[in-house]
Amino acid sequence: MNTVIYTRVSTDQQTTASQEHELCAYCDRRGWQNIQNYSDQISGAKFIRPGLDALMAAVRVGKVERVIVFKLDRLGRSLPHLALILDELARHNVALIATSQGIDTSHSNPVGRLQMNVLMSVAEFEREIIRERVNAGLAAARARGVKLGRRASHNWTPADVQALKARGLGVRAIARELKIAASSVWTMLRAEPEAKAA
Predict the structure, then answer these.
(1) Annotated active-site residue in 10, 18, 121, 183
(2) How does pLDDT run across 87-141, given as a tens digit for each residue?
């Protein structure tokens, strides 16, 4: 089992050296060895981060005992994102330590476990607020007469599709012409021979 440190800066003009120095010194004081280092030079708003993705892959296969960061915002791009990471770490019995914030979610630290539960509760609250705003926005749009979702394909018949096919158009070209999904075109093309056979 390894101790992992994760560092991140937002741009390639910045360096993770100060974070690494602080985290390595923390590990030395605790007597932890076999330190693995993952880092990213990328905005925390990015969904794909090679260093974080590699770290979480190691967590999933049981190679990590604890993850150490300088601050929580180095790890998660937002509270909901951080909650997802915390949840996955908890499910794999991996502790998270934020050295500059006094956070340690190790099983031996009940205060740290409380901190993690509070963070996850706040994140769940934020997700619910976002969901309510989205639903309210959709309801307001419907009230204004905005039609949501993909345009219905029932305005077109298999005969319309067959006529375009007879002109030499392919499935994608027909879909563009009728402004419907290619899957709907395939469905209508398959339906026509079945209708003739009946």
Answers:
(1) 10
(2) 888 889 899 999 998 888 887 788 877 877 787 777 677 767 778 888 888 888 8
Q: Is 43 a catalytic residue?
A: no
Nearest Cα to Cα of residue 50 among 22, 8, 12: 8
Burial class (CB in 10 A: 0-12, 13-18, 19+), 28: exposed
Pairing verdict, β 103-104 and 95-98: antiparallel
Mean pLDDT of the chain: 82
Half-sphere exposure of 194 (CA within 13 A, CB side): 7
pTM above 0.70, yes or no: no
pLDDT in tens, 55-74: 999 999 999 999 999 988 88
CA distance 123 to 125: 5
Name the one residue in this structure whose structure tokens are 């027909």: 174
Helices in the chain by DSSP H: which ranges?
17-30, 50-60, 79-91, 110-143, 158-166, 171-178, 182-197
Contact at 8 Å (CB) between 69 and 75? yes
CA 108, CA 96: separation in Å to the nearest integer? 12
In DSSP terms, 146 is beta-bridged to: none
Question: In this model, does residue 25 exceed pLDDT 90?
Answer: yes
For the chain, the maximum distance between any two Cα atoms, rounded to a whole number of angstroms, is: 80
